[in-house]
Structure formats: structure tokens, C-alpha cells
Specification:
Elements (H helix, E strand, L loop, with lengths): L3 H14 L5 H12 L5 H7 L1 H5 L1 H19 L4
Helix pairs in contact: 1-2, 1-5, 2-5
Length: 76
């Protein structure tokens, strides 16, 4: 059984393989997910629609990562 983090990481791998995400976008999202204040279960729960569709989840994660890094003022 996949953990929430495993599910998110697998989704990102599928996104790159399917051409939905670039490797750079995947890396940006993974760095976001690795941040201590980011909880994978909370990320999934934040958007139940996205959690039901991997494609929606990919773009939801990208939006979350972009917003997070913009607030931090860090270029990733």
C-alpha cells in the first residue's frame, strides 16, 4: 500500500512520463513536498477533486509549489 507521499511522488513520475510535467516542474514540486512544514496528507486533503484525478493533482501540486516558493521569495 502506498503512503500519501509515495502516491504523490508516483503521480509526479507518471506526469513526466506522460508529458504533463517537465522534469524541472517535478523537481520543484518534490522540493516543495520535502519542506518540513509541508504535510503530504494535508496537501491531498486540501483538494479532494485533485486527489481523485492524477492529472488534476499534478497541476494542483504545481500551483501549490509555485505559490509556496513565491511567498518564500526563492527561485527553484
Amino acid at each position: 500500500m502506498l503512503t500519501d507521499m509515495d502516491y504523490l511522488r508516483e503521480t509526479l513520475e507518471l506526469g513526466v512520463a506522460g508529458g504533463f510535467l517537465t522534469s524541472a516542474q517535478k523537481d520543484k514540486i518534490n522540493k516543495f513536498l520535502d519542506e518540513p512544514e509541508v504535510n503530504s496528507s494535508s496537501v491531498i486533503a486540501a483538494n479532494m477533486h485533485a486527489a481523485q484525478s492524477r492529472t488534476s493533482l499534478m497541476f494542483f501540486l504545481l500551483g501549490c509549489a509555485d505559490e509556496y516558493w513565491d511567498k518564500k521569495g526563492i527561485e527553484v
